[in-house]
Amino acid sequence: MSRQAKPGSKPYRAQLRERLAALGFPEAAMPAQVARNLIVECRIPPRTAWRLASELSLDVAAHQYNAVTGDPRAGMRGTRIWEYEQWPERGVRPTVAALRVLAQVYGTSWKCLLGLRDLEQLPAKDLAEYHAEAEPAAVAVPEAAVPPARTAARATAPVGARVEARVDEEIGAGALDDAILLTKTNVDDVQLDDLWADLDFLGGAYTRTAPDSILGQLAVIADRTASLLKGRQRPKQTQDLLLIGAKSSAMMAWIAGDLGRYRRSRELNSAAWLYTQYADDFLARRWVRTSQARVAFWAGNGIESAKLAADGLNYHAGGRLTDAPLILAEARGWSSVQAERQVLDAIARWTAIEDPDLGAGGEDSFFNITKDRRHYMAGNSLLSVGQASAALREFTTAREAFEKLSLENRWEAMDPMIRIDTGRAHLRLDDLEGAAAQVEPLLDAGVGKQPDMVRATLKLLATELSGPRWRTATTARNLAEALLDAHASTHP
Fold first, then answer.
1. What are phi and psi of 109, to 5 degrees?
2. CA 376: distance to chain centroid?
3. How high is the pLDDT of residue 146?
4. How far apart are CA 283 and CA 199, in angstroms?
5. Per-residue confidence band for 179, with pLDDT thresholds at 50, 70 and 90
6. DSSP string covering 454-465
7. Which own/partner pairs from 8-15 qualify as long-range (CB within 8 Å, at least 24 positions apart)?
């Protein structure tokens, strides 16, 4: 057997068949002999060994399974066969009926598809059925017999020589087996591609789907990823799973914050950061810092938000996640404590890099916010440090950008937030009528279920309208009451 052929690989099996043919084994006997070798010599579990011995891919095996059942549209898939092969360590336990069909596909007995560890985990009913049938089965892996000549030689060799020879044989004896463990994995590229595709889809669907629904679907991805990480993968696959865990947790934290669940958001962001530390990936750190900064701001921790955003900018990750969201988050964080110098500095840095044609498509659309949201964040920060005219310009640009977006790319919370803060800017400029013109259409349409930040801005505008400046104005008083009613009726 060539030393270059990896045990169990296709070249290994081809060489094995050549050796068996040279020994006079007929073609019909080859699969059984190859399967036995894979089980005994390569330590490959029986179901996988028999499929490989039959030279079938997972998808082809599934197709033939469906053909045996007489229904080509039957539900067997390659991924399900893969899950059968991972059991009992993980995966899904195959039923006896499924094993019988697989045995027909592979040309063997269903009992030959079960190893000792499988039998130990079988339900009592299946084990009884196993013992009730007289079909041949090979479960135990016997130790290789020592040839008589070698036995005699050992008997006549001096004791010291025998001990020395045994020590030489044992040195490094398990090295190859240990190295082969690196090739064992409970995940494949198809599963990883599916997980990434699901994350990308949910990131795009976030703007047009109920937050609770997205949160629930992300939780499924996170649970599936955590379950896979408990098994063994190749190093690159482990890193991919860690990155998926980081991104899904950061997205869940973001959305939980929208729903006002800030304690849960912090826990999820802590989990996301832990994933990034093990994945050691700068882009992942940017994802998490962006989410952490957003959650901290809306939870009332502006300075913490600014510092988290500034730290995120230290992780340079190419063009996939631009600096804009983090710079604007930094400005917004400082605005909460009216730190005008820091806010204006951050807005200047953002203005220098702002690309008016930059969309939010691609793999990181969830974190790469759209133009309307970028200008809204800038306006919100400027308004908080008394720059009402500059803020109004940013809100006007945000409104124009929002209306140019297709319906599927609009975040529905953006419309009320732009209206509310545009109204606040008009109040700062002593324009009560302008403020009312912005807010009244929102009240007429109804606020409905909106994220927690919409509730917060509604209450803030109502508070400003109730202040000393507008207390005697009937329009302001009526508008404040309507806003408070709307605030009470909204639920995240």
1. -90, 145
2. 29
3. 36
4. 15
5. low
6. HHHHHHHHHHHH
7. 8/38, 8/42, 8/44, 8/52, 12/42, 13/38, 13/52, 13/53, 13/55
d(CA 369, CA 413): 13
Helix (H, G, I), strand (E, B) or coil at 257: helix
Per residue, the 3-state secondary structure of 113-175, as one string, reads HCCHHHHHHCCHHHHHHHHHCCCCCCCCCCCCCCCHHHHHHHHHCCHHHHHHHHHHHHCCCCH
Closest CA to 113 of 57, 52, 60, 59: 52
pLDDT confidence of 206, banded at 50, 70, 90? confident
Per DSSP, 60 falls in state H
DSSP 347-367: HHHHHHH--TT----STTTTT
Rounded to an integer, what distance in angstroms lies between the CA atom of residue 411 and that of residue 3? 59
Report angle CA 218, 219, 223 to the nearest 5 degrees. 120
Provide the total of helices (H) and of strands (E) in the chain, helices listed first: 25, 0
d(CA 313, CA 325) in angstroms, rounded, equals 10
Residue 64: pLDDT above 70?
yes
Token pair in block for residue 240: 């991919």
> Within a 13 Å sphere around the CA of 248, how many CA atoms are in the beta-carbon half?
25
264-293 in b/e form (b: 16+ CB < 10 A) is bbbebbebbbebbeebebebbbbbbbbbbb
Q: What is the pTM of this model?
A: 0.63
Helix (H, G, I), strand (E, B) or coil at 56: coil
Q: Which of 492, 435, 487, 425 is nearest to 457 (CA)?
A: 487
Quote the pLDDT of residue 363.
60
The string of pLDDT tens digits covering residues 279-303 is 999 999 999 999 999 999 999 999 9
Q: Which amino acid is at 222?
A: A
The pair of three-digit structure tokens given for residue 490, joined into one six-digit string: 């909204």
Q: What is the pLDDT of residues 358-369, one digit of tens each?
A: 765 556 778 888
Q: Which two tokens stand for residue 153?
A: 């030689």
Please name the residue that has the structure tokens 């069909």.
Answer: 101
Contact 317, 286 (CB under 8 A): yes
Give the total residue count for the chain.
Answer: 492
Q: Are 294 and 254 in contact (CB under 8 A)?
A: yes
Give me the chain's average pLDDT, please: 84
